[in-house]
Every structure is written in structure tokens, then in C-alpha cells.
């Protein structure tokens, strides 16, 4: 009896198949020949797939297993193949098996109003490649709860918050699927389930549905607790999504936060020891430092460093690791600033609101079209109108100018922006002595506080045009 060996087809192949035969012309020999060919074909296909994976010509989702493999798989998810960095109905559902209407999904993904509707849960923009769909969920849209929640989120953006029958249908389906999963609570702890809940909460926060936001974020907190107690691995992307959606929902709806910037190790940030000069208080704030708390001064120093990074000539938006670091830097600033938005000090409250707006507009470009900057501009206007007498002294004139100009620059067209324009016109005439009708003087004062010509100039110049009309 002889042994025939199916040789490895590639150097990487390390398994052999031993086949016993009696002779080349026997019936058994012919069957073995077919078996050997089949085995060789399988090995060839496997070798081809390996080569394609190395060349990034295909993509296979890796299910994370033991903690020893978690870091390796996480690093692969940070920068997945270019082909899958943007969400496309054709790519995620090539065979038309999604639980939602794929053609409708494709139309929505092509609508400019819906491009950032999914943020901050996941991003479809190249700038936030480290937070793309696959980095967050490790899978496609086959989960019914997630797919319906995505459709609801996209539709709510397209309808500008006017929820029609189609919106409510997808919302109802998403909630129903989530309830089915929650019924078996351990099986509900997954990125898809948490992501679906976060997408619902994001829409509800923008609509001011505080009780619904509280309900959904409480569910997320319970799932987080279970994941910790049971040792269930969650991607860094979904943790980042939880943090940002929780923070944004708190700003918009007033809901209590369930996490902060120190909750997840993936978002932890500390000052860069190689650029100590970045972390300093701007001269405009230095004049009124006696009115600011020590904690707030530290935040302003970190915000000044973020401004320096934004102005730095080699600022690279395409580098996922740099963008993740900047995202963590911003998260630390905004998480701490949020605690000052309810401070009883009128001046500190105004400064924290304006600083929060600047922190968003410095580096969070995909979120610039969200409602938070204009929402906070409206809040700032109310604060300024209530405490106008606190800014009567000459030592506060430049601070008041900065507050008014930041609020007006990022206010949406309408009554709020018009009021900012009127206040700026009157104050430039009566209080801001030495400022002529040139915006260069205005911007010279702005730079004494938190201000970036690179990030703010285009919008700020538009406001100036409205003022001098």
C-alpha cells in the first residue's frame, strides 16, 4: 500500500492530507484522484483569498474572541480597507437580504442632509475613518434593530425632524427588535443593539424628548454594566459612540450623563509633554483670571492647545491615529466644560458656553452642521441678555466682544443671529472704542481669547458683512 500526499499549494499552507490507495487504476484510486483534486482546488481557493486579503482586495469581518487577540483585531479595525470606509447600500447588501429597503437606503445615503445623521455613533466621512461603520460594529447592517434605527436616523434628518409615517414605521420596528433582544438580556449585549439605541436617542435629543433620551441611555448603561460584569468585549468604536451621544444628548435635552471622559480607556487623554508651550492661558482670559476657577483655567489652557494643533501647518486630517488623539483631546475638554454650563456665576457661564462652541468648531468638522453650535449660540444670547450689567466695566469690553462674535458667528440664520448683529452694531459704536470699520481690528481682539482664523474665518467674515451693511 502506498501513500499519496497532497502537497501544500503555498508556503503559508501547513496542512497535508494523507490518502491511502491500492493502485492507480483501481476504483478506489479513481475516487481518491477526485478527492485529491477537490482538496487541491480548496487549497488553491484558500491561497487566493489569502493573497487578496494581503492586497486589500476583499474584506472579511473578524469576530473578536479572546482578550489576547483583542488588541490585534482592534488595530486592524482602526484603518480598514479603503473600499469599505464609506457606507454604501450596494457594498453592505450586495444580495438584497437586508431587513430594510436597500434601494431606499441608497437614496438616503446619497442625500446631503443625511450624510452626518448617523454621527456621532458612526461616520461616513473620510476625516473620521477611525469611527467608520465597520470599526464600530464589526459587521454589516444585517441586524434588524440596527438597520431600522439607521433608516430612522437618516429619514429624520431628511425630514428635518418632522417625523412622518415612514419615519415612525422604522422607529417602531427598531424599538420592537430591541425589546425582543432585551427579553434575553445577555444576548442583547452587542455593538448592534447598543448602536441602535444610541441612534434613537440621538434623534430624540434633537427633538427635545428628554424622557425618551433618559429611558434609552439608561438601557445603554445597563448593557454596559452587564458587559463589564460578564467580561463581554465591546469595540473602542462603540464606546466612543456611547460617550459622544451621551454628551451631546445631555447638552441638547438636559438628560443626566451616564459616562464621562474617564470612563473608557480608549478615550483617555493627557497633555503632550513635547509641546508644553501650547498649554497656556490666552492673554484675554489672563486679564480676568481672578474671576475664573482653577479647573476652568486648566480647561482653557487645554483648549488653547487644541487651537494650536488646529493652526499647525502639518495638521493632517487623513491620519486616523492623529484624528483619534484629537478626538480624545476634544472629548476631555467638552466633558469638563459641560460641568460649567450650569454654574451660578454669570461670567463663567457665558465663557464656558462660548468656549464649548469654539471646541466644537475647531476640530469637530463633521459635527459642524449639527444643531449643537447654533443651540449653544441661542443659550449664550439668553445668558448675555440676562447679565448685561455684569459686563459694563471697560475691563470686560473685549471679553464681551469675543462672546458676542463667537455667538453670532455660529448662530443659524434667523432671529437669534439678527439679535447678535444688532448687539454688535450698537456695542461697536458705544463701547468698543478704537475699533474702526475693519474686521482686522475685531479679529485682533478675538485672537486674545480662543480664536482660529483657519477654522473660523469664513463664517466670521460672513457675520462681519451683515454687521456693516
Tell me what the structure shows.
- With 469 residues, the chain is mainly alpha-helical.
- The protein has three domains: 2-54, no CATH class; 67-256, no CATH class; 276-467.
- The chain has helices at residues 27-54, 67-78, 89-92, 102-109, 133-137, 144-158, 165-183, 191-206, 210-230, 236-253, 283-287, 294-311, 320-337, 346-363, 372-386, 397-409, 415-430, 439-446, 453-467; strands spanning 2-6, 17-21.
- The chain has a two-stranded antiparallel ribbon.
- Helix 9 packs antiparallel against helix 10 and helix 14 runs antiparallel to helix 15.
- The longest helix is centred in the first third of the chain and has 28 residues, at 27-54.
- The protein starts with a strand and ends with a helix.
- 38% of the residues are buried.
- Mean pLDDT is 80; it is low at 1-19 and 52-86.
Descriptive terms for the model:
single chain; 469 residues; mainly alpha; 3 domains; two-stranded antiparallel ribbon; 58% helix; disordered N terminus; Transcription factor domain-containing protein
Q: Helix share of residues?
A: 55-70%
Give the oligomer, counting copies of the same chain as homo and different chains as hetero. single chain
Low-confidence stretches: 1-19, 52-86
**Structural class of the helix and strand makeup?**
mainly alpha
Strand order of the biggest β-sheet? 1-2
Tally the structural domains.
3
Beta content = under 5%
Q: Largest sheet, described in full?
A: 2 strands, antiparallel
Protein name: Transcription factor domain-containing protein
